[in-house]
Amino acid sequence: MHCPFCQHSDTRVIDSRVSEDGATIRRRRECEACGERFSTLETIELKLPAIIKSDGRREAFDARKLRTGFDRALQKRSVSEERIEAAVRAVVHQLRMSGEREVPSIRVGEFVMAELRKLDHVAYVRFASVYRSFEDVADFREELDRLERDLPVGSEQLPLLQGEIAAIDKKADRGGKR
């Protein structure tokens, strides 16, 4: 490892620590020449499948693009960074476990939608509207109806529609739990 300060080719490891999730190792290093200290992160490098785009092009998988997609869908939503990172890792894990050399981008989109559905329903509908190229309000209504129909009872997420909020408020007024 070259020193980032003086470019000397010999540095020594002073300390190593495994990250909380066990996926990376943080190493504290010291340059033998200038004495400066710096940290490095070591991660496992596994070959992920190439992504086949809808126009037939093939692209190397890019985790930054995946994270950007999650960030756009979850913009201004109250989902913790830890949960978002876990969702990104889950998609990457599904890609690894597929065992395929190439995966259609449509399948990646389905993996993302499944994770967004668990995280935040609004983000899920945002992503679905772009991913499935919604043309009009009827497409949104259809997706919302499908989502509401498939929701588990007692979902921890906020209601999608104002009518659901009113129904919950009425139930609370009658002594029911919210």
Brief write-up:
The protein contains 6 helices and 6 strands, in the order βββββααβαααα. It is an alpha+beta fold and 178 residues long. The protein folds into 2 domains: 11-43; 50-151.
Topology of this structure?
Layout: E1 11-18, E2 24-31, E3 37-43, E4 50-52, E5 58-59, H1 63-73, H2 81-98, E6 102-104, H3 105-119, H4 121-131, H5 137-150, H6 162-173
Parallel strand pairs: 4-6
Antiparallel strand pairs: 1-2, 2-3, 4-5
Q: Please, how many domains? A: 2
Please give the alpha-carbon distance between the first and last residues: 57 Å
Rg, Å, rounded:
23 Å
Broad shape: elongated
Largest sheet: 3 strands, antiparallel
Q: Element order, helices and strands?
A: EEEEEHHEHHHH
Summarize the amount of helix as a percent range: 40-55%
- Helix segment tally: 6
Report low-confidence residues grouped into runs of 5 or more.
none
- Average per-residue pLDDT, rounded, comes to 84
Structure class: alpha+beta
Widest sheet: strand ordering? 1-2-3
Tell how many strands the DSSP assignment holds.
6
Q: Which strand-content bin applies to the residues?
A: 15-25%
